[in-house]
Structure formats: C-alpha cells, structure tokens
Amino acid sequence: MTFVAPSLPEMATGENLSKELSSISFPFSNLLRSRRCFLRAAWTLQRQGIIRLSQVAGTADIEALNIRINQVLDQVESYRASGIAEHPISDAYLNVPENRAISGYKQLVNADRSVINLRFARPDGRSGSDAGMVDIFHPEKLSSELNQLTSSVLQAEVIQNLLWTSCLSPVKIKCRNLYINNGVEDTRGFHCDGRALKFKAFLFLSDVRDLGEGPYCYVKGSHHDGAPWLRTSAFNQANGIDICEFTQLGGSEALPMMARAGDMVISSQAGAHRGHPQHPEGKRRVLVAMYSPRSKTKLSRLDRLKRSARRWITSW
Ligand SMILES: [Fe+2]
Asked: What percent of the chain has pLDDT over 90?
C-alpha cells in the first residue's frame, strides 16, 4: 500500500470535544482519596496515552509562580533591550541566537543551572521553529522560592506512582521546563519524542480555552503501534523523512487539551502531539516535568509486574 502525501488529523470541536475531554479527565482530589479513581486514571493513560487531572495546584501557588516568572522575564527583557553584554541572572545561562551558552538537548537536560532559551526563527527559514517561545530548562534552579513552588505544584510523588502503575515501569523526573508562549505562530507539526517510554506532565499556569491560545494537541491511542504509526513508519522510510514526524494521521482525531490554570495534562510522548499555533495575541504558560525510566537495567515483564505490584500495595 502506498501513501501519496502527509495527512493531518481532524481537530475535535464543540460537544464532541467536551465529551472526549471529560472521558479522560479526573479530579486530582478524587485521585488522592479513591483507589478506584487512581486506577482508572492509570488505565486510561495506558490505553489512550493522555489524561487530564483537574485542580492539581491551587490559585495562590499559581499566582506566586507567575509573579516570580514575570520578574525573571523582566530581567531578561531589560538585558536584551540594553544590549549590555552582562549576565542578567547570576544563576542561569542565557541562550540567545547571538550567544548560545549551551546547545544540544542532552547538554541542556544535564546543565548544572537553569538555561533560559529564547527561540527565534531559523536562519534557513525552515518551519516549526517555535520563534518567540521562551523555554526555561530547570526553572527550579533559578531561586529557592521557585524551587519550593515548582516542587509543590508538580506533585512528583503522586504522579510518579501513577505513571508506574500505568506503564509497569519505574520512572522518575529527568528534567523540568517552563514553556512561555506568547503569540508563537510557527509551531512544529504532529510528531512524537521518540518511541521509548517517556511522559510529560504539563501543569498549566494560565487558562487555555481556545485554539488561539495554543493548546497542546494529542491523537489518542497513537502511542501504540496501530495504523497511524505503521503507516507513518512506512511513508517516512520511503520518503526519507525523520521517523518522529507523524505524517499519516488522516482519519484520526486530535484533541486540543483545553485546561484551566492549576490543571495538569499527562501524556505519553510516544504519541502524536503538537502545540497548536497561537493567535498573535495568544498566551500560554506551562510548567513541565519529564519522566523517563529510572535506569537502563533491563527487567523481564514478570519482574516489572512484581515490582509494580509491590510498589502499588505499599503505597496504599
Ligand atoms: Fe514533542
């Protein structure tokens, strides 16, 4: 079978979208007190590749975080406006096109302090640059207040247990990021972040109510080796396209993950996802925790099952 061109999924809208979102949504307070709700959330994540947890963080913490983030952004802005080649924030590296302190994803993840990355249009004009986005690696290292606030809102212990129950593998946080998107119109198309086990937990610091605000979009179930992935692999291989670009999503449906500040979306990064292009006035702020397997030790399926069962039993 041949596929002549890349194809996009339909975007879910209206009542259908509300129904789809509510089928993968769980109140965080229920998750904490009900084992049944916890297991349903873990199972849904395993089946669909994505869930939404409502009200993980309270208004006071979200406001406090936003105030501190605004202070950091003001410092960066005044540095850029002044043109003085002086480091604006003592505990961070600043990556700007004219002066990249750190490059390469691995180096960014392993950096010893925060890295403030300002994204600009690519010199060769290729699309998907995320120009205008501010992507801060390790925001918790910017100050002790940010460290305390990020750890409080990310609820790492609960989320780690949830992921472990869902995928039957021990995972832990490898990196935290802060995505600040204001009027980012040139976003990358549907892709996966590789097919290895990897999750992201997106804690929303601003409401995302419509497409113009740039919601995170996801094709449910595409983290499994079903038709979209098999067709994409074949098409990309035949056409010399990077395997991570999801090119065959025709006939699928993408969910724009509308959320309120304080909600958390958790997704398997093996599935097809993208940030929707924003309206020039659109704003979105998200704190992200990336989880991946604890170690490279290979465990048999039975061992993984045993470890997960032990962990689950002792966590209740
Ligand atoms: Fe991605």
From this structure: 76
